[in-house]
Amino acid sequence: MGETITQTAPAKINLALHVTHRREDGYHDLESLIVFAHVSDDLEAETADDDSLTISGPFSDGLGAGPSNLVLRAVAAFRDRWPALSPRGLKLHLVKNLPVAAGIGGGSADAAAALRIMAALAPEPVPVPDLADLAAGLGADVPACLLSRPLVARGVGEILSPLPEFPQLYVTLVNPKVPVATADVFRRLRAHDNYPLPALPSPLTRPAQLGLWLSETRNDLQPPAVKLVPEIGLLVEELAETQGCMLARMSGSGATVFGLFGSEGQAHEAANQLRRLHPDHWAAAAPLLLPTVGAH
After folding, report:
1. What b-and-e string marks burial along 172-208, b requiring 16 or more CB atoms within 10 Å of the CB?
2. Per-residue confidence (pLDDT) for residue 24, from 0 to 100
3. Tens digit of pLDDT for each residue in 19-51?
4. Which of 97, 150, 163, 286 has the most CB within a 10 Å radius?
5. Are strands 28-48 and 4-22 parallel, antiparallel or unpaired?
6. Which fold is adopted by the domain 4-162?
7. Is 155 annotated as a binding-site member?
8. Please, where in the chain does CATH 3.30.230.10 lie?
9. Does domain 170-287 have CATH number 1.10.238.10?
10. Which residues are catalytic?
11. Is residue 259 part of an annotated ligand binding site?
């Protein structure tokens, strides 16, 4: 038996997402306030002779475990960059608890967990900026997922400003189990040069401060996503009406919708309400990960 190591891959939530510029290469510059929740995929690795991946869990159906899977791509990219620091092989097992193509960074979080595993198994420290640079090559959300803590992301997602403090809040996540392709949402985006995020209060320690700040922000991808999947708009309305909900909005490019709460009980009650309304949807309630609490 080889050495076994486990990493969580927490759900990523874009509390606010402004699209500020369409670049000549076709990509978009964004500004986003990103947080992570205590609900995750789980990635387990055991040293072995060769790399392999198996997948289980409620959202494992239809996910390929071949070389194109982001977990194996992350491992391969790490090996290419640091062959001398890489284990001979890894027997990987992914428990897929988060919905796929859902705007909560599932695949990106899994790739980031794989990079953290490779770095943890390396015989000497891997430079963090180099690991972040490698993460950016795997996907726009992977650098943020590598940190899994409250931060502001700019550029295409590679310029990160981790927040030193953040209020304790709880989130309810609801997904209609309709996958949404990010490219389809961007194709329907009308304005590509929107104003950036307002300056965050400092220190940001109280839920009310965050609530006021969020009222000045939006998710620019929500209107085009609602056109693609009208159910998203309905879920935002239903979550907004639950008791104690500070904000209801879509995360990322959808279709997951979140409600933000100051109380854990209210977040769980909101999840129960949405489950009763939509028994076929996925719903979860969890605390947000704080800067002072390690996500892994």
Report:
1. bbbbbeeebebeebbeebeeeebeebeebeeebeebe
2. 81
3. 998 888 878 899 999 999 999 999 999 999 999
4. 150
5. antiparallel
6. Ribosomal Protein S5; domain 2 (3.30.230)
7. no
8. 4-162
9. no
10. 12, 141
11. no
